[in-house]
TrEMBL record:
Transmembrane spans: 59-78
Keyword presence, Membrane: yes
Record keywords: Membrane, Transmembrane, Transmembrane helix, Ubiquinone
InterPro entries tied to this protein: NADH-Q_oxidrdct_subunit, NADH-UbQ_OxRdtase_su21_N
Highest taxon of source: Eukaryota
Organism: Actinidia chinensis var. chinensis (Chinese soft-hair kiwi)
Listed name of the protein: NADH-ubiquinone oxidoreductase
Domain NADH-ubiquinone oxidoreductase 21kDa subunit N-terminal, residue spans: 11-89
Amino acid sequence: MNTDITASAKPEYPVIDRNPPFTKTVANFNTLDYLRLSTITGVSVTVGYLSGVKPNVRGPSMVTGGLIGLMGGFMYAYQNSCGRLMGFFPNEGEVARYKK
């Protein structure tokens, strides 16, 4: 196990931006990111609704589940987009778009 705190992960793909700002990362979302975000949100709304059936609080439970899913889906899409910009995930599309 490497315990050296100066060791860091090396990107496997071309680096577009080492420290992308929030706006650039969100603007870099692709179709798959939006699909994942909406899927996670939709599943969370459904789980929230179903978990609120027994105590009869379906509405509030559904909204809470949806908000949690929306935040989680956004963070997942943000992580993937940021990883592509920093070169940790495959980024052929981004390289073609930003190297013009």
